[in-house]
Amino acid sequence: MTQEGKPKTPKHSQGGTGRSCGLCLFIFLLLAGASAVAVCLIYRPRKPRFAVVGAAIYQLNATSQPIISTSMQFTIVTRNPNRRVSIFYDKLQASVSYRNQQITPTMDLPPLYQEAKSTVALTPLLGSGTVPASAEVVNGLMMDEAYGVVALRVVLLGKLRWKAGAIKTVKYGVYVKCDVWVDLKKAAVGPVPLLGAPPCKVDI
């Protein structure tokens, strides 16, 4: 039985709740976008700079079969040129390529925080075991090793975001390409001279 005269409890529609959640999400995204724009307009963050300053070759052998054995280490220096903006890196990966073909497995690097006007050095050890390669790459590497000079490209991929005070931007993809020429004429295992290492190209 129903009691007459008792006020009915209002029922909230699911549609109203969904609209409220959508509105909250829209406001959150709007504020995040406004924060990123504020950082860009007020502080004008600049791209980080990268350079390879050292190399060590422990194994770089090509055989008659389409296989390359690689083990090498590079010292990569990154500079944050911003005075009041720090940089967060995550999902960083490093690899080495030769003639546009990757010759080391991709290596995951730990997250990195870089303060304003600071310099940080990375020393990833890249390569292990054998890597399949095309005949063109194998033949080219054998010829370059016989000559004593090998051109390599160190590649970094990942995400970064800038931070100014309590404001952080959204994450941006970063792609770093470092072309280096290493001297293998002495056929030594370990540190090798860099014959050329211009500043790396950084795309964001």
UniProtKB/TrEMBL annotation:
Any one biological process term the GO annotation gives: defense response to other organism
UniProt lineage: Eukaryota, Viridiplantae, Streptophyta, Embryophyta, Tracheophyta
Localisation per UniProt entry: Membrane
A single Gene Ontology CC term: plasmodesma
Keywords, ordered alphabetically: Membrane, Transmembrane, Transmembrane helix
Membrane topology term: Single-pass membrane protein
Pfam assignment, any one: LEA_2
Primary localisation category: membrane
Keyword Transmembrane listed: yes
PANTHER family: OS05G0367900 PROTEIN
The organism of origin for this protein: Gossypium klotzschianum
Name of the protein in its database record: Late embryogenesis abundant protein LEA-2 subgroup domain-containing protein
Domain Late embryogenesis abundant protein LEA-2 subgroup: from-to ranges: 79-177
